[in-house]
Amino acid sequence: MSVLAEKTEELARVREKAVQGGGAKRVEAQHAKDKLTARERIDILIDKGTFEEIDPFVTHRCTDFGIGEEHYLGDAVVTGYGKVDGRLTFVYAQDFTVFGGSLSIVVGEKIGKIMDLAARSGAPCIGLLDSGGARIQEGAVSLIGYDMLFVRNTLYSGVIPQLSVVMGPCAGGAVYSPAIADFIFMVKGAGQMYITGPVVVKAVTGEDISLDDLGGAMVNARKSGNCHFVANTDEESLQMVRRLLSFLPQNNREKTPKKDISDDPERRDEELLNIIPDRSNQVYDMRKIITRVVDNKDFMEVHRLFGQSSIVGFARLAGRSVGIVAQQPQYLAGSLDIDTSDKIARFVRFCDCFNVPIITFVDVPGYLPGTQQEYGGIIRHGAKILFAYSEATVPKVSVVTRKAYGGAYLAMSSKGLRGDINYAWPSAEIAVMGPDGAVDVIQRKEIKESANPAETRARLIAEYREKFANPYVSASYGYIDDVIDPRDTRPKLIHALEMLENKEDTLPYKKHSNIPL
């Protein structure tokens, strides 16, 4: 056997050792928690046979506190690139079997290298997070590893899609890398995100709280809004990542991907005539409209559990990806509040970053009133929607299905906010405020002095609705481009997007904007 052949066999043995991570016992411990190892997760995410590892032989440099003799090839993260549905994708997966997945300066350097390669190659970067935090034995040096991530998360924001999948602990400073990323996935029962753990919370505030109640997936998805997608298992979360990537371009220079579909672009839908109730104060599920309009009823909702009076997500029209923004009348009558404002503005800005056309379905009675909203900053938060739609240069097409009142109507991709095409259904009511409230304000005296106030009020409301709260008044001014048959919504949207495919729009020269945060 030649010397080269011997060294090649040695290489194979070394690689086999690297694949074992922290060893069989630690792998078993990981499996006992119903968690996959870093490499098992990558095998699910990346197309079979396409993963190429980077830096498999790197080890930590720390010699203090008893870890100096304990070296593992690759340290506590597996990094590399491969393909997802045939498209280049970069990935790093923290390895909890090696020093609890803790972040050393070497781990930070490995991840930073992958992020740089992703940006230069114009491809998404996916982080699979499962870590005990900064490696204490390295002191401040390990903290610099986080800085390496934060800077790159920020510089490459809006350049390539960045997705974070929280599949285990993610605490303290570690949470800020996923927080800067575009979307966060969490695994229920395993993923955790919090700044300080239960022990510190108890010491400072006296509160007794579990890890899951403090920073589990459901808390972050429903209450704080940090989490966009919740999965039950590692496998499910990774399949969700693959699905999301199918809607996204590789980078900010590409158009959205085109997919062959079996759904007729000219399809009309009779059922769209029966979804909105006859009475304007009755609720309905806006998702029924969305799914009947988009290709093959395929709608991937984002932030489903947060800010539930609004709906955002991805779908396709004639095979091309679009972003969907809508009100949900089933919650708070579809009002805009602090949470929905943040949710919509963030989603609109993501779509604009990555050339995803925005379709907006409008049924909004206004911004949610009340001292809690006012004191919480609804003015500042609500302005984010106005800012996001005004700034967006992607194609923007809207459909007013029912209510569209006041400033909330303006916020939802109105013509004044540079909406490209604005449609309305015949059921649309577009006005400063609803007929009931308007009549009570402007004709209060007439109602009060009438012989039958209730009858007079009802008559005046009907007159107001006929004269002002209908789509034809706005259409007569050109604020609504067309009042359409609801059954034609799908082909109308597709035709509008085809017309806007080569849209060019500009913004005044600036270093960057200053959105009201």
Structure description:
- With 517 residues, the protein is an alpha/beta fold.
- The chain folds into three domains: 3-247, 2-enoyl-CoA Hydratase, Chain A, domain 1, CATH 3.90.226.10; 270-433 and 470-499, 2-enoyl-CoA Hydratase, Chain A, domain 1 (Alpha-Beta Complex), CATH 3.90.226; 435-468, no CATH class.
- It contains 20 helices and 17 strands.
- It has helices at 3-19, 24-32, 38-45, 105-121, 140-155, 176-180, 198-205, 211-215, 217-224, 234-247, 286-293, 338-353, 371-376, 378-391, 406-411, 435-442, 444-449, 453-467, 471-476, 489-499; strands at residues 52-54, 77-84, 87-94, 125-129, 162-166, 169-171, 183-187, 192-194, 229-231, 300-302, 310-317, 320-327, 358-364, 396-405, 421-424, 429-431, 482-483.
- Strands 10, 11, 12, 13, 14, 15, 16 and 17 form an eight-stranded mixed β-sheet that branches. A seven-stranded mixed β-sheet has the order 1-2-3-4-5-7-9, sandwiched between helices. A two-stranded parallel ribbon has the order 6-8.
- Helix 12 (338-353) links the parallel strand 12 (320-327) and strand 13.
- Helix 12 runs parallel beside helix 14 (378-391).
- It is elongated and about 105 Å long.
- The protein starts with a helix and ends in an 18-residue tail after the last helix.
- The mean pLDDT is 93.
Structural class: alpha/beta
Based on the structure, what is the oligomeric state of the protein chains? single chain
Major pleated sheet = 8 strands, mixed
Strand content: 15-25%
Distance between the termini: 67 Å
Radius of gyration: 27 Å
Mean pLDDT: 93
Q: Looking at the structure, what is the overall shape?
A: elongated
Number of domains: 3
* Low-pLDDT residue intervals, each spanning 5 or more residues: none
Can you tell me the CATH topology of the largest domain?
A: 2-enoyl-CoA Hydratase, Chain A, domain 1
Q: Report the strand count.
A: 17
Q: What count of helical segments does DSSP give?
A: 20
CATH class of the largest domain: Alpha Beta
